[in-house]
Write the structure tokens for this entry.
Amino acid sequence: MRPFLAAFLACLLAAAMPTGSADATDDEAALRELKTVLWPRAYFTKDVKLLDRILAEEFQSVDDEGSWSSKAEEITWLSNNRPTYDSLTFKIRRLEVFNGDTAIVAGTGTIRGKDQSGEYVGEYQSSNIFIKRDGTWRAVASHVSGYRKVP
């Protein structure tokens, strides 16, 4: 009877201990929505307020040509430019949360549109670092590289 009691108590303790898996699942879902839905929507619809909520004040970005920009510069660019594409999708290839408040989201962006040569598809690679403050995920860094038109 004693081994049964010990096993029962061990199961009871294990069930009572927080695992953090629900939080991790919520964090991953929030980050997926940010990177695959909200961030592309902000650029496509020129939603400056949405982009302001996504980017942390200290946000810095490096584009595919090696140019750096701040949050203010990104917002100004968005305010003054129209999208030249018809759609933008992002496929996440890496999503990791560290210590519950820092995350890496990386993957491949696909842009579809028309230019003077006709319809095109372009791809790029992007790595992003997010931090969680007061329960909200915000981007602090972004790096884009390898833009190319896909045949």
About this structure: The chain has one domain: 20-150. The chain is about 35% helix and 45% strand. The chain has a mean pLDDT of 88.
